[in-house]
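We modelled the chain as a single entity of 742 amino acids. Its sequence is:
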Amino acid sequence: MDASGNLGDLNKTSSGAARGGAKVFDVRTAMALSRHSRFDRVAFCVAYAVIALLVLPWQASAAWVAVIVAWEWLLAPPMDPILLTLPEDQAAAAYAGLNLIGSVIYHAVPLLSLASGTPIGIGIGVTWITGSALNAFVYANASRALLLATLAPAGATALIGPWLAYGFSWAAATIPLVIGLSSFAARRLSLDHDALLAELTNRRFAFTDLERKLSIAVEASGDGMFEVDLPAGQLHVNANWVAMLGYEAGEIGPVLDWRDFLHPDDTVLVRRGYASHFQGVIPHTSAELRLRRKDGGYKWVLSRARLIERAPDGRPLRMVGTTIDISARKALELELEAARDAAEKANQAKNVFVANMSHEIRTPLNGVIGVAGALARTGMERTQREMVELIQSSGQMLDRMLSDILDQAKIEAGDFQLQIAPFDLRREIEAAAALMRARAEDNGLKFRVEYAPEADGWFAGDAVRLRQIISNLASNAVKFTQKGEVAVRVSASEAASGAPVSLRIEVADTGIGFDADAAERLFGRFVQADGSISRRFGGTGLGLAICKTLSELMGGEISARSRPEHGSTFTVILPLPRAEPPRTAARLDHEPAGQDGMAALSRARILLAEDHPTNQRVVQLILEPVGVRLMIVDDGLQAVEAFKPGLFDLILMDMQMPVMDGLAATRAIRELERASGVRPTPIVMFSANAMDEHLAMAAAAGADHHIAKPITPERLLAGVEAALAQSAGEDLDEAEDLSEAV
């Protein structure tokens, strides 16, 4: 061991004085550390003295301990103040000389033990000298003079002791050699120790630097930091956390119960997050919660925390985390939520307004279109017919614009639903084209439909919306074409077995066309090629936007290509699966009634429930000339009272009426039929309420069909005839079933 009495933990003062640099020896610190370890050194020497009694007289061991005690407490201490008065380099040299004397004293018993020549003595000496060398290399290499002062007595003891025991012999030479090898190993160990100390020092400085930077960053960010002692429920926080809640420094004690600051409604949220984190479900907790401020109010914060310590039995002990002030963001979120709620209410009010205005506008429009249609079926002079046709075309334009606006409102509200059913594609294409053919011919245009054979057959889809797309595109083509032709071309590409057929519909014209810039924005709402178009040709600019939405809802797409003054081509591609024709193909497409249909109408007994006198007269003017026996009532209650099983072939029921509306009246009639056990009478809901939810409500009440206002003679007659035809078809099916049963 070190004999100077001053080595101890000497290099703790200097091993990392400079980060990763050379060691610096400080005499004052070395003296302080030597005094601190004085008792340990003396106790160690006493233990060796006791062991040395095995080879030495007790007087020698006792004298050695007495001299060491005198050196440590009587002789060396007075020298320390004198050394401190010297310059630094002189003090270091004097301190090395003082340690040389102490080292000589400490090596006295090891020397006598080696000189005894006994195995135990040699073991005592070798152990002491090796330990002393290791101690010197580890703790005294900051000063070369001090290192030599402590190693010199050890080296002399290693040489002199064996010589005294064995004289000049191999044994006397072997023992110093073994001690030298042990000392060399101690030197290597000390180098490793120095490297480890340097690495630890560097890491300590790096950690300290990182901790400083993190502390600066946290302070600069304004975020609060906290540490929770979970078993005790205690909370330790930094200055930012305190300031975040409106407290001054020192107002909150160092140990708090974290639950005292938490909003009662957020306690369960925090506990649930902690439990998930403790179970390893989530890597850390993260919760938006409210903390109580000094003024009693609450502040929204984002709190994140992580468990950093567990007990040996796995119990969570300690968590650390950060708290970020999100009160401004929360206030903005609340404002946005309030704005969203207001917008939703406004949108609902708009939908109600649109639905109500639809009903109110369609009622007088029904009178205009219906009366004009009825008047057109009478004999008139050429000038009178032109005026009636003008009234009809204007009413149809208003009807078209109103339908576009309603469709757009349904699309924006997310209430738009497709009605999927089997339909004959060629028939639907021809029906849509027929509406535009007359207008085209009136404008001196050729109108043709080219239909590829592979597109023949029945498909599953929304036939009404398909006709709407084709009608919109054909109507635009006729509107913007002054000479030439409009062509509708239909083709299909067969897909793999079971896959939908790719249906391609092109509507081409030789009209005014448009440029590439207009093509990019043409499918937007209220957009036309340019401002002059809307003034010159009219329209809402909604038709193409609705076509695009309908195409996408059907899983397809729509595109356009054109050049100014060279016409345009609009292409719709839709994936439609093929379908089997229905068993009874009742004519529900509202085509004009044929001879058989007219004959059926001439014998029909129809009950009309309609509160508006204009609409009553319109229906009367359309149906009575074809032989319909019509009974008119003013509200739903009168319709229920007038109804008798088997008395009427058909009921036309308005949806909105005073006293009892059409839905309630329909339910009441169906209940009467069920109570009487009679076959249901066809009920056609006759209303301006034509949105999808209204159709669903009518069907749920028990209505069979729906005819939307405003009506034309063709539409009303076709709708009534279709309902009667379907009822007749059901009678035929029942008769066939009865015949088979018999």
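As a brief sanity check on the tokenised model: Residues 1-22, 529-540, 584-594, 734-742 have pLDDT under 50 and may be disordered. The longest strand covers residues 298-310.
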